[in-house]
Structures are given as structure tokens and as C-alpha cells.
């Protein structure tokens, strides 16, 4: 998401540099962007310095702040890189928040470090209404809401509909607990009592995930392959406990796939009974009933498909990137 934002800003005539600790994959895929990272000698020097002199700071903060080039706008994209942006003293500091990140950590110290970034003296961008509300209610700090975009030329309906008697359910396959796969598996076991010809197709980079229903796993599909997969689905489901503008449900809508999603973080585009079915997180019963409803009601699937395609058109990069550019220009003035 962040890299696509960077690419769109570069397309609008600006010089964009990505500062990272690893760069090979980025250089291969994002050739129009400059990527900088520390060499091994530099990395060793600052890692030792961080451990002996500034051990209270994550070493990534020291490294990234040290290699950040001169710039007009300096954007952090993760809680610990917010410290790097502030420490570098280069450019107008921004924090492009992707999620409420204290949720990612179990230890109290990393949670506290993540929480502290929400009161650092910098401009903030939130990617969802839910995230903007969470940060404001918890810390009293405002942020500018800028939705991500999707490539609707790639994510569009394909003529690859599932014509077999098997009902195909598609989801992102990540084992991290808050992604909600155990709840989905339980719901699908319940659905199979009424629809025994059920197939789960997961995608991502964890092919070892075991599911109690017939399933297969597609490893690291390209966007084109993913669009074909969405288009072939009878339902695409996101069972997470919380998200902040997840792309798979919106990409699936753009491809005409009926969507079942959970709150929170999908409020900006998923509207229950209009373009999707929305259920409470961790509610296995509601998730199962919604899936069964979609899989057995052809009229409902057609309605959700048509409305989902219309919704996705509101989130093109052509609409989103100029808002980001305008925010940066205003900050410089």
C-alpha cells in the first residue's frame, strides 16, 4: 500500500526515495523509485553504537535515521520508523499510520513505544475512519484521513466464474491470531453440513496452514492471478478481529465477488446488506450464517456483486494520490 502511494506520487513528477534496511526486492519491483539502505559496515557500526550508547532505542530507528537523505517531506510508515523520521531532523515529518499498532505487540514495553508515537510532534495520516477515531479518542491527536487506492484496471471482473457444483470461498491465509482463521474454519465446518461441496482457497505466503475443510493454497499470487481468483469466488471473506482498510475485500468487490467482512476497519467501504455482508468479529455463528446466505442465494450474490463493483470505483488511485500530494504541498507552505 505504501509503495503504491510512493509510485503514484512519483508519477506526478516528484522525486521519491524509499529508506529501508533491505532493498533487493523493492528495487526489482519498483524501478521508478530510489531505494537506499545501509551497507554492512554502516549497519555494524550503528548496531554496536545503538547497543552500547542508545540501547533504549530500537536499532532500526538509529539505522534509518542515519541513512535518511535530505528531503522536503519525510514519511514514517510504521510506529518505530516514526522515531527514525523525528530523529533524522530532515524534511517535514509525517506519520502515515496503517493500523493501530499497539495491537501487534504482546510485551508492555513495545506496546508503550508504539503508543508514544501517536503524540510525537508530526503530521499524521490515517488510512481508515476507524483508525482516525481510535487515535483521537485515545490520545487526542488529529490525523488526515486518506484512503488507499486500488488498480481497477487490474482488479476488475474476469470471465472465470466457478461453474462447478463446488462452492468456492476465498480468503487471505495468514496464521497470525487476529486474522481470524480459526473462526472462519469453525464457520465453514458448520456451513458444510448444508453444503458439503465446499472448497476453501487461501492465498499468501504461508502454505503450511491446515484447515479442517477441503482447501488449497496459492502462494504469492500476482495481482493478475489474484483478480482471476476473486472473480472465480462464490464468496470472499475477511474474518479478522480488526483491520484498518484491508485491501482484499475491496479488491474482491472490484472483481465482482460477493464479500463477507468483519468490523473493524472496513467501515469506509463495506456496507451491510448493500455491497457486502458485515458481521461482528469472532462471532462464528453470524459468520457461518452470512456465508451460507451468500452461497445459497443467487439473487443476493448478484446484488452484492453489482454494488461492490460500483463502490470500488470510488477508490481509484486517480482520486486518492492527488489528496496526498495536496497535503504535502500544504505542509511545505
Tell me what the structure shows:
The protein is α/β, with parallel strands linked by helices. The protein folds into two domains: 2-149 and 317-332, 3-Layer(aba) Sandwich (Rossmann fold); 167-315, Rossmann fold (3-Layer(aba) Sandwich). It has 13 helices and twelve strands. It has a six-stranded parallel sheet, sandwiched between helices. It has a four-stranded parallel sheet with strand order 3-4-5-6, with helices on both faces. Strands 1-2 form a two-stranded parallel ribbon. Residues 43-56 have low confidence and may be disordered.
List the helices and strands and how they pair.
Elements (H helix, E strand, L loop, with lengths): L1 H10 L5 E3 L4 H6 L4 E3 L3 H13 L6 H9 L5 E4 L2 H10 L3 E6 L10 H9 L6 E4 L2 H11 L4 E2 L21 E6 L8 H11 L6 E7 L10 E5 L3 H9 L3 E4 L8 H8 L4 E4 L14 E3 L4 H13 L1 H15 L4 H16 L1
Helix pairs in contact: 3-4, 4-5, 8-11, 10-12
Quick structural gist:
With 333 residues, the protein is an alpha/beta fold. Helices cover 42% and strands 15% of the residues.
Average pLDDT value? 89
How far do the termini sit from each other? 27 Å
Instruction: Characterize the main sheet.
Output: 6 strands, parallel
Q: What fold name goes in the CATH topology slot of the largest domain?
A: Rossmann fold
What's the alpha carbon Rg, rounded to whole Å?
21 Å
Question: H/E element string?
Answer: HEHEHHEHEHEHEEHEEHEHEEHHH
In percent, how helical is the residue content? Answer: 40-55%
Number of helices: 13
Quickly give the CATH architecture of the largest domain.
3-Layer(aba) Sandwich
Overall morphology = globular
Tally the beta strands. Answer: 12
The helix/strand class is alpha/beta
- Residue stretches low in confidence (pLDDT < 50, at least 5 long) are 43-56
Please report which band the strand proportion falls in: under 5%, 5-15%, 15-25%, 25-35%, 35-45% or over 45%: 15-25%
CATH superfamily of the largest domain: Glycogen Phosphorylase B
- The CATH class of the largest domain: Alpha Beta
Number of domains: 2
> Reading side by side through the largest sheet, how are the strands ordered?
9-8-7-10-11-12
Amino acid at each position: 500500500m505504501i509503495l503504491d502511494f510512493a509510485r503514484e506520487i512519483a508519477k506526478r513528477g516528484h522525486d521519491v526515495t524509499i529508506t529501508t534496511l533491505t532493498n533487493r526486492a523493492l528495487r526489482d519491483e519498483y524501478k521508478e523509485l530510489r531505494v537506499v539502505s545501509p551497507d554492512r559496515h554502516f549497519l555494524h557500526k550503528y548496531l554496536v553504537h545503538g547497543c552500547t550508547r542508545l540501547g533504549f532505542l530500537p536499532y532500526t530507528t538509529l539505522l534509518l535515521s542515519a541513512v535518511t537523505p535530505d528531503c522536503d517531506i519525510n514519511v514514517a510508515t510504521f510506529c518505530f520508523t516514526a522515531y527514525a523520521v523525528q530523529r533524522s531532523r530532515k524534511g517535514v515529518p509525517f506519520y502515515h499510520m496503517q493500523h493501530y499498532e499497539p495491537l501487534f505487540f504482546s510485551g508492555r514495553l513495545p506496546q508503550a513505544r508504539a503508543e508514544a508515537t501517536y503524540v510525537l510532534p508530526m503530521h499524521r495520516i490515517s488510512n481508515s475512519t476507524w483508525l482516525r477515531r481510535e487515535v483521537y479518542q485515545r490520545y487526542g491527536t488529529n490525523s488526515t484521513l486518506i484512503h488507499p487506492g486500488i488498480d481497477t484496471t487490474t482488479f476488475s471482473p474476469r470471465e472465470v466464474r466457478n461453474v462447478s457444483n463446488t462452492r468456492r470461498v476465498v480468503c487471505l491465509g495468514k496464521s497470525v491470531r487476529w486474522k481470524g482463521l480459526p473462526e472462519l474454519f469453525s464457520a465453514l465446518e458448520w456451513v458444510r453440513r448444508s453444503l458439503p461441496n465446499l472448497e476453501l482457497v487461501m492465498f499468501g505466503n504461508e502454505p503450511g496452514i491446515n484447515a479442517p475443510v477441503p482447501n488449497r493454497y496459492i502462494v504469492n499470487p500476482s495481482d493478475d492471478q489474484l483478480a482471476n481468483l476473486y472473480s472465480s469466488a462464490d464468496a470472499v471473506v475477511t474474518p479478522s478481529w480488526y483491520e484498518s482498510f484491508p485491501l482484499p475485500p475491496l479488491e474482491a468487490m472490484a472483481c465482482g465477488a460477493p464479500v463477507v467482512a468483519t468490523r473493524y476497519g472496513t467501515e469506509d467501504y463495506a456496507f451491510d446488506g448493500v455491497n457486502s455482508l458485515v458481521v461482528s468479529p469472532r462471532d462464528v455463528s453470524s459468520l457461518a450464517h452470512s456465508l451460507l446466505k451468500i452461497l445459497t442465494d443467487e439473487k443476493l450474490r448478484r446484488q452484492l456483486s453489482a454494488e461492490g463493483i460500483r463502490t470500488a470505483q470510488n477508490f481509484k488511485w486517480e482520486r486518492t494520490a492527488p489528496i496526498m500530494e495536496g497535503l504535502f504541498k500544504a505542509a511545505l507552505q
